[in-house]
Design brief:
mainly alpha, 6 helices
């Protein structure tokens, strides 16, 4: 398993393409993320649901990162490059990048190996994931305001 985030230059070369900024699509993604969050908050955390909750947080963050890239006229065909983009654009957010990359790796284990995370993993990280979501939401909405 790769333990290091893909380099942004490699991402740009292999997985990123320029696209027309579609603000309606960005708004639609934000709306879907809000619905996903609302549904996620209704799930009772226990040993069996912890993996589903972690996976859902990843999905929400992934969609926010997709929307953020789109506001910059970019689209990625690789999830890791979403995190790499965030790392490149927000170089002062090392802690958040580390959390996002870890969540991506955990989500992959859940999806591809049937891995069950301990509920304490969600308890330890939930507020951090919510912080990242709020940060991304604010950044995207700032870009929407100016357009």
């Amino acid at each position: 398993m790769n333990t290091e985030l893909m380099n942004w230059e490699q991402c740009k070369e292999e997985f990123i393409r320029e696209v027309h900024v579609d603000y309606d699509k960005v708004r639609s993604i934000l709306k879907m993320c809000a619905v996903r969050l609302r549904v996620l908050e209704q799930i009772q955390l226990d040993d069996e649901t912890a993996s589903i909750i972690a996976e859902d947080y990843y999905e929400i963050v992934k969609e926010y990162l997709t929307a953020l890239m789109l506001t910059n006229g970019l689209k990625s065909s690789n999830h890791e490059c979403l995190v790499s983009f965030f790392n490149q654009k927000y170089s002062d957010k090392d802690y958040e990048v580390k959390l996002l990359y870890e969540l991506k790796k955990v989500r992959n284990r859940i999806s591809y190996e049937g891995f069950f995370v301990d509920k304490s993993y969600v308890q330890r990280n939930k507020l951090e994931w919510q912080h990242i979501i709020e940060l991304l939401d604010k950044e995207i909405k700032e870009k929407l305001k100016s357009n």
